[in-house]
């Protein structure tokens, strides 16, 4: 009788541990998926790679890219002010690119029309910036 009672208590202990591990796994999966999905939105429009006069831009079919569309390229400098002052972003026009090929839903290849393009520069449609 005592032997069965010990086994039952051990089984309950294992089920509590298993339940805790299951919840930790589920939370980890949801956080990972959320991070993966938000990364694309945070980086949308940025230059990912540069090779000679071609660049890979984080814009694709699902993010509104079209072949032949021209984009202005900006370097964004973030200045951190004092606690009482707001952060200021300085946008400096560096050049212009034209989308040559859509690679997939989130990437496209573009050629540099004028100026320069470097990794982590922001690309926006020419008509959308009033700076």
Helix/strand layout:
Elements: H1 2-42, E1 47-51, E2 54-57, E3 70-79, E4 88-102, E5 108-115, E6 122-125
Antiparallel strand pairs: 1-2, 2-5, 3-4, 3-6, 4-5
Notes on the protein architecture:
The protein is an alpha+beta fold. The protein has one helix at 2-42; strands at residues 47-51, 54-57, 70-79, 88-102, 108-115, 122-125. The protein contains one helix and six strands. A six-stranded antiparallel sheet has the order 1-2-5-4-3-6, with no helix packed on it. The chain starts with a helix and ends in a 6-residue tail after the last strand.
Poorly predicted residue ranges: none
Strand content: 35-45%
Q: Can you count the beta strands? A: 6
Cα end-to-end separation: 82 Å
Overall average pLDDT: 80
Q: Number of helix segments?
A: 1
Instruction: Walk across the major sheet and give the strand order.
Output: 1-2-5-4-3-6
Rough outline: elongated
Determine the structural class based on helices, strands and strand pairing: alpha+beta
User: How would you classify the quaternary structure?
Assistant: single chain
**Range of helix content:** 25-40%
């Amino acid at each position: 009788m005592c032997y069965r009672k010990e086994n039952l208590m051990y089984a309950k202990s294992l089920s509590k541990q298993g339940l805790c591990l299951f919840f930790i796994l589920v939370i980890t999966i949801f956080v990972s998926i959320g991070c993966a999905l938000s990364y694309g939105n945070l980086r949308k429009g940025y230059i990912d790679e540069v090779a000679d006069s071609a660049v890979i831009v984080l814009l694709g079919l699902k993010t509104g890219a079209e072949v032949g569309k021209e984009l202005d390229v900006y370097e964004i400098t973030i200045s951190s002010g004092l606690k009482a002052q707001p952060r200021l972003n300085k946008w400096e026009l560096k050049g212009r690119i034209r989308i040559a090929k859509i690679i997939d839903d989130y990437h496209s290849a573009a050629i540099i029309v004028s100026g320069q393009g470097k990794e982590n520069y922001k690309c926006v449609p020419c008509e959308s910036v009033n700076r």
